[in-house]
Amino acid sequence: MTATAQTVAAAGRPGVALRERLESALAPQGAGRPLLLLVEGAAGTGKSHLVKQLTAALPPTVRRMAPGDPLPESGPVLMVVEDVHRARDGVVADLLQMLAEPRTHLVCVLSYRPEELAVPGLVLGPDTEFPATLAVVRHVLGPLEVTAVREMAEDKLGADRCTTDLVDGLHHASGGVAQTVVDLLDDLAARPPVPGQPCSAAVDRMDTPARLEALVLRRTAAVPEEHRAVVFAAAVLDEPAASRDLAAVAGLRGQAFHHALVAACRAGVLEARGAGRYGFSSPLAAAAARRAATGPAREVLHRRAARLLAGRQPVDWERVAGHRLACGDERGWLLAVERAAERFEEEGEQQRAVPLLESALATDAVPRQARSRFATLLARCAVVGLRSDQTLQVLRHIVADPGLPVGVRGEIRLDLGLLQCNQMGAVAEGLTELKRAVGELEGRPVPLARALSALAMPYGPGFSLAENAAWIERAVAVAEESGDPVVQTAVAANRVSVLLNGGDPAAWELIDRLPRESELVGCRQQTARGLCNAADAAVWLGHYEKSRELLAEGVALAARSGAAYAEQTGRGCGLVLDWATGQWAGLADRARAFVDEAGTMPYLVSDARMVLGLLALSSGEWADADTHLRGPEAAELDTRPVPISATVSGALIRLALAHDDVTGAADEAAAAWERLRAKANWAWAAELAPWAVEATLRAGKTATAGAMTDEFAAGLDGRDAPSAQAALEWTRAVLAEHTGNTAEAALLYESSAAAYQKLPRPYPEALTTAAAARCRLARGESGDPAVTALTERAAVFDTLGATWDAARVRAELRQYQPAGERRQPGRPRYGDMLSPREAEVAELAAAGMSNREIATTLHLSPRTVEQHVARALQKTGVHSRQQLAHVLQTPTH
User: CATH number for the 570-784 domain, one of 3.40.50.720, 3.40.50.150, 1.25.40.10, 3.40.50.12780?
Assistant: First the structure.
């Protein structure tokens, strides 16, 4: 079935009822009342496909006839005439004659475009008449609903590319016309996705399909030349327009306009759009007609449209700007751009202002005296929106202008620095610009407070947490001096981040004071940012319920107030929260979708890349883990948010240890520890410390490992950081185990596991519980409780999808299996089924692990692993490790 046919079926599923009606009329044993089925629909709505659907499966006893053929004396007869609006006079005459006295068991199906009928409403012309003996059914095909467009898009492009924005864009651009949707999807399918760019952006750049353009131009040409102005006026307005507006833009009055509008509708180029409005079937159809207008005539139309829209209240300055630019009114264009951008900023829609201001500043049209005003407005809007490389270039060019007043340069440099730190991920360059801005903003308390507050943000490298605290206290004093509520809210939000990330309990009361219900949109945007940042800080501290509450509130407020960057930050935080709390089902898909959507902003997507790497590591997909954690598309560790770089380093250390690369693990540990020491916020060591200390110990540096543990403990003194406290117990357990004190290690591992269970954090709880059991078994203690603990934790890992960890734990279980439970001599018979060991090996091989990696995990020789993999391939009937993933079931152990 073609895409259009699928769509017709989806739009109310008319096919079943209509087919039953046809079959009933054609059934030899039935009454045989003749039936006329009229399939009506504008061009491209899928009439032919529906007719084929209805008639394809009719029984062979049905005779198919054409007009003029002699009708048989008996038996069911089907006659189909498509596009009857184009039928020759002789065909119409034959149809009229046949339908005047229709025979029994006759079904006649006629499809047509109502806008092209010779006489409106009369399918067979002025002599159309249907006798009482004839059953007449009319089925009208109209535009598709969004759900039908989604079905078509997913069938053609795959569900992963079909975001809501893309589907909505397709539906809007096509007007829901099925054939246009098909043509657009064919074009999209031929274009490979652009990395880091949302799929919906491709729709915005699409031209009118050739089939639709030919239809629009043919129908436009059918309108008498003296009447075409109304067609071009509708194309320029590009909206369902009232008659008076069309008349004003077309420059027609009275009967001249009336005749022009009738002619355009009669030709099918314009159509009634409800409530006394007229327009095109879709924006793409309007674009085709707009291009057909001659240049000078088009300029006149745009000038009239600009005048019309400027007289409405409220004025849509964005549309006015577009019309003024199209007619060459440069001064009027700039005025409209500035007013549109100011209104977007007032209404919290800064993201919409950015491209308008970029387009203006990218030309030489903006006078020198207005250039700094435009640039300042652009900078303010850009910092709460998403990434724009063009904005970055424009701002860099402007701050380099030696004629710019110092204070203005400082304001623009401030937002340039923020843009570099946040959206662009260039933290070092951004901090440099911010420090320079501070020197240029003396005497301007509002922007100075913003600059100081930005330097206080604790996530990035470059300043210690104590230095961040000093910046924020200075910012608080300047903000109070400014008296500006928006900047005071911005500073208060950043103060929350500084205190909370350091584990200072005083931050919680400050969160409650943030003005959620302020009448100022700027205050609401800053509050949304503060709530999302507080949620992120709470994740790293280990306050997961509080994080989830703050995140829900912050993202909702960001969406309502137009703080796009804060909203995206909140979504990234949500991924980390789900990872930390063991909500792993579907998490990798959500993280990949986030990377695809926001991949051009490395700082923003560092959360998602980290989560993907951690998930891949736990499942044994080590090549993927390495790519996500430090691949070419990942930012350098020195430029990522410090808690993320510490967590990524912990994963890289673990990955190196799994490969038995002790030197590499120890080197990574030393570098990561130095970064964290420079930041001096040990609450962020939770995901690093246990692995860093283990790598240091395995490298033979026991004294260094002990000093690291003591430094970690001292750094947490007086801090409210439950995740780091649990990790401290874990780190102490690692130190005790590797220095021969397994009894103390077991107790410390159990203490850590209890802390993780309370948080709750199921993954580290399972890791530490398994480690405690391992220590007790190594000491020769009674095996039953420890074996039970290992067995239960293997099941936890299975539930999470941590394949590698589950396999490791089961390998440890076999090492300590009681003698009475060991397999008796002789190989057990499994026939064509995988043995437990073969299933374990096959699972890890399917995850992408090499034979040597599997051997290290399961304490086997590479040769034994090779044999197990070969038998698994033979028994499952597949030919590669990749195919194993599709046939393996969860093994029973």
Answer: 1.25.40.10
